[in-house]
Each structure stands twice: as structure tokens, then as C-alpha cells.
Design goal:
Blueprint (H helix, E strand, L loop, with lengths): L2 H17 L4 H12 L5 E2 H8 L3 H13 L3 E6 L2 E8 L7 H21 L5 H31 L1
Antiparallel strand pairs: 1-3, 2-3
Helix pairs in contact: 1-2, 2-4, 5-6
């Protein structure tokens, strides 16, 4: 892929991540790291490729690290950080279930406060209760079969 192709595809893929709720820059950083022929990219390479400010890229990299979507390594005698995508960590069972439990609590609280029975909110709450029990099973099945897809 030429550098121009890489820039074009970084923008296209970045828009997909934008639609999933990431900031435009976070989407472009992920896209660049995913499309890169080398597994690791330095901070400066990311800044130059994306033509973004150092502070914006720095903030975005910290956010993506906290979300466990990227990681970095350092090399002995080299002060640079080398970033890469961590796709296997994007779906964390613990985080998914924590968010589901939070949503169940929110819906329970709303239902408790309302005088009239709200069937729509109860139905959404019931879906989250179902997901809370089914998602761990899904992850177990994935762990048992993932080598088949590799």
C-alpha cells in the first residue's frame, strides 16, 4: 500500500470507528495502527501520518491505552514508545458485564421511582438481565473454539 493509499484508508476506517462512538482522532489512530505493515509505530510517526497536533495525539493515545485498545513497548536505551493495537483486549468480559450491571441498576432505579408500570423500560431491563447471563457463556464458547478461526 502506498503512503497515499494508507492515508486514504486510515480516513475511511477511522470513519467506521467514529460511527462506533470513538472520537475522529481515536478512530484514525486505531485505523493507522491496524493498517500499518509494521506492528509498532512511534508517537512521532503517528503525529506525522495523521497530521495532528502532538497534544491531541498524546491525549488520544492515553485514552486508547486506558480503554485497553492499544499498548506500547519501549526498547532498552531508546526513549521512544512503540504503539500497537490490542484487538484481543477490545472485548473485556469484565467491562461488558460491569456496564450491563450498571444499566440494570439504572433501569431498576427508574422503575422503582415511577408510579405507573413502564413496560418499555422493563423490557429493556429484562434484555440486560438476559445479556448478563448469556455473555459469559458466549465468551466461554469463544475460548473453546477460537483456535478454529485462527
Amino acid at each position: 500500500m502506498t503512503e497515499d493509499d494508507l492515508k486514504h484508508e486510515t480516513e475511511n476506517l477511522g470513519l467506521s470507528f467514529d460511527k462506533l462512538g470513538l472520537s475522529p482522532l481515536a478512530g484514525r489512530v486505531l485505523a493507522y495502527l491496524m493498517l500499518s505493515e509494521t506492528p509498532f509505530r512511534t508517537f512521532d510517526e503517528i503525529v506525522v501520518h495523521l497530521q495532528a497536533s502532538k497534544s491531541s495525539v498524546s491525549t488520544t493515545l492515553k485514552y486508547l491505552e486506558q480503554m485497553e485498545m492499544i499498548s506500547y513497548k519501549t526498547l532498552p536505551g531508546d526513549r521512544k514508545r512503540y504503539f500497537k493495537v490490542e484487538p484481543t483486549r477490545w472485548v473485556s468480559l469484565i467491562k461488558v458485564n460491569d456496564k450491563i450491571r450498571t444499566m440494570i441498576s439504572v433501569f431498576d432505579h427508574v422503575l422503582a421511582l415511577k408510579k405507573q408500570k413502564d413496560t418499555e423500560i422493563k423490557e429493556i431491563r429484562d434484555l440486560y438481565l438476559y445479556l448478563e447471563t448469556e455473555i459469559p457463556k458466549l465468551f466461554q464458547r469463544w475460548e473453546q473454539t477460537r483456535k478454529k478461526y485462527s
